[in-house]
Design the sequence.
């Protein structure tokens, strides 16, 4: 396969990954701030779907295309920016996996609140807080990862 085509796919998947993350985070935050349990349930369900369809696919594509470009460029695996980029990639993944689980649980809790016609339980708010903190750690890391990929310091 042509290097520039793989690079193009890598850039598109990075864009999809970052854009989906920002978009779903924006909608989750807005639904949460609305306090509308039904809106929270609908948005959580959609965000979980988006993560499985778009984010998971982009994560896999990023790894495969990044590895392919590294191998075909004959860049040693121990090159400083590659090592830092891989560390960030796995750190971001370590933030994302619990985020998906938290989104599933927040969706379940919101559906239970709707069914019982009651308020969201305290556990929902704990999950949201953890979700928010993980996002605040992951998003700047993605920006640093972009920097490493572009400037290769």
Sequence:
């Amino acid at each position: 396969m042509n290097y520039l085509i793989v690079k193009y796919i890598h850039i598109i998947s990075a864009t999809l990954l970052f854009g989906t993350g920002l978009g779903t985070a924006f909608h989750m935050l807005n639904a949460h701030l609305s306090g509308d349990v039904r809106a929270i349930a609908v948005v959580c369900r959609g965000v979980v779907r988006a993560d499985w369809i778009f984010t998971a696919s982009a994560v896999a594509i990023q790894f495969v295309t990044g590895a392919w470009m590294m191998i075909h460029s004959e860049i040693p695996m121990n090159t400083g920016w590659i090592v830092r980029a891989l560390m960030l990639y796995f750190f971001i993944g370590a933030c994302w996996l619990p985020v998906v689980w938290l989104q599933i649980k927040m969706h379940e809790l919101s559906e239970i609140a709707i069914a019982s016609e009651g308020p969201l339980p305290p556990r929902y708010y704990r999950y949201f807080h953890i979700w928010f903190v993980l996002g605040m750690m992951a998003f700047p890391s993605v920006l640093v990862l972009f920097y490493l990929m572009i400037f290769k310091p």
